[in-house]
Amino acid sequence: MGCFWQHFMAQSAFLTWYLKHKWQCEVLLLALFFSVNMVANGYIAYVEKSATGIVFWKPWLWEISSALSVLLILPGLIWLSEQYPLRIQGIRQQMLRHLLASFMFCALHLVLMVTMRSFAYQLAGEDYRFDWSTSNLLYEYAKDVRLYLFFIILFEAYRFVIRRWRGEASKLADAPDLPDTTDVTEPYLTQVLVKMLNQEFLIKLSQVDYIKTAGNYQDLYVKGRAYPFRITQSSLLSQLTPTDFVKINRGEIVNINAVTRFNKLNSNDARLILQDGTELSVHKNYIENIPAKLRVVEV
């Protein structure tokens, strides 16, 4: 079973397709998760309350409003998990951060949920009253903190799988099992180690076409494929050969050797065309970083 899974996950065609449609797949999976969860919880709530003679739509409204509220908060939760991923180092600081974030998550969830329910009840000519007692708030927090931790762990696990599937880059010094083949006299980073499932291989920085910031990672693009490298942009830029790699906007660095064309735009920004056809935008504040010999405007 393990061999089959590794073989399946390593299929380059499926990987390429998934990464190309990654955003759509993620939205679809989340929509499916929330839809199934709403239907299941709504049905359970209705069955539990039906004996009390409650109106049919109310249990469904409770669950739908709760799920929609979480869905509205989810982008912020995704951002938080990307900016502050789970790590062994600084565990106390992380616990405090997530404790405060869980309080905020619960508060936003309650406010949005109660607002939706109150509006729906008003449309039905009724008055919705939420129990704001301490005991009920503690009950709601106990439910929400579990939901909060579920999503934080889910996002972390998902990104870990994607990184291992795509291949995660690291400095050779971080890989003690592999001899460091870099020249110790070389002042700049020349190659990185990529771990992909059970495989390890080297990528020379000269093979990298461009680098794009993705949260706490820098994606190294080689022949259209991205390898995430956990490092800040400023730290990576300081370790790259300045005559080869230059910053072209807030989130991207380009390998000058991969550039084939430079096009000036009416907005005073510019566009670079790489050898593989990739187009990158150059902000006007970074145009001077492009060597003068490449800054030839085509007529």
TrEMBL record:
- Record keywords: DNA-binding, Membrane, Transmembrane, Transmembrane helix, Two-component regulatory system
Q: Which residues form a coiled coil?
A: none
Keyword Membrane in annotation: yes
Q: Which InterPro entries match?
A: LytR-like, LytTR_DNA-bd_dom, LytTR_MHYE
Q: Which domain of life is it from?
A: Bacteria
Q: Where is the HTH LytTR-type domain?
A: 201-296
Q: Name one GO molecular function term.
A: phosphorelay response regulator activity
Q: Where are the transmembrane segments?
A: 27-47, 59-80, 100-125, 145-162
Q: What is the protein name stated in its UniProt record?
A: LytTr DNA-binding domain-containing protein
